[in-house]
Structure formats: C-alpha cells, structure tokens
Prior knowledge:
This protein has 198 residues and is an alpha+beta fold. The protein is 30% helix and 24% strand. It is built from five helices and seven strands, in the order H-H-H-E-E-E-H-E-E-E-E-H. A hairpin with a 2-residue loop joins strand 6 and strand 7. Helix 1 packs parallel to helix 4 and helix 3 runs antiparallel to helix 5.
Amino acid sequence: MTHAHRRILAAATASLLLTACSSSPTPETHVSRPTVHAADTTSSAGVPATDKASSADAAAGTTAPATPTSGVQACSLVTEREATAALGRDPGVGVGTSRPGASSCAYGTYRARSIVTVNLVPVSGKADFDHLRRAAPTGQIADVAGVGDAAFGVSQGPSASVWFTKGDTLVAVAVLTGAGAPPTTQAIILARSAASRI
C-alpha cells in the first residue's frame, strides 16, 4: 500500500467515524488525505482542501503514474450540474487536486455547509474498500445496490457518503447540506453517475 493510499484510507476512516458520531460536521478539521477542497478545510470524505498551487499543478498535468484509469480524475466523475441538483444550489465549478495514487474534487465549501466531494483511488482500492466497510459504524451503514461492483453508505445529520468499487478502483462520494435529513438519495444518485464514468 502506497503512502498516498494509507493517507486516503486514514481520512476515509475518520470520515466514517465523523459521519456516524456527529450530526453536525466539523468544518475546520484537517486530515492528511487527498480529496475535497475549500480553503483549509477537509471534505466529508476526509480529504484535505487543496490550495491554488495544487490545483494549478493538477491542471498542468501533474498526475499519478499511469494506471488502468489514469485518464480519469475525480472531477470528471460528477458534473457541476449534478452537484447543483444534489445541493439545491449551484456550488460553482469543481476544484480538483491530484496526488500520486489518488485525486479528489470539491463542489462548494464547508464554510457554506454545502458541498459535494469526490475521492478517487484508481488502483488497489478494493482492499481499502473492504477495510472501510469493516470499520463503518454498526447500525449506521447500509449496502447500496446498483452502484459499481459493491457499495455502502453512511448517513447522519446533514451528511451522506457512498463508497464503491469498480474493478480495483475505489470512489467515495459525499454530500453535505446545511440542515435537515441526510441527503442519502442525492449521494446515491451521484455515486451511480460516478460509477458509470469509470
């Protein structure tokens, strides 16, 4: 398992625990993981925000080594239009970051309590998925049918996340809304869209 994979796994595990234990996410938590962005924040999938330099590097083509899905980046898995439908408002263009072995994308911000995050581990993700599935809180996890090869979700308070595999690729999609019931349906719809693009 690469260093990037270990960081992603640690962040995703932290995200599972945060979703399960809190009805109001902590917007200023930092986790050493590659995913979502917004100035100095962490995604509901547990990935740290990226800075403009990181985004510029990603846009300039600084990417992970070639993999079976190396042409796929997290921001290509969910569109701005789909994120808008999930959040009920336009979050703006997705902000992506790429690190060796992973990429992430964020639509919206934690400060606004309105964000969609997408994390992608294109290889060796199946083992991470299995670990995350075992670490998920009992009673708050649900298997999700029709998404990739296998999927599960965790929802509580104003947040919902779906983790799925397709082949050996792991994807985590998370939706955070300002308040109300968990956006479980929105997270599942986005995860299905993401799976169709891998």
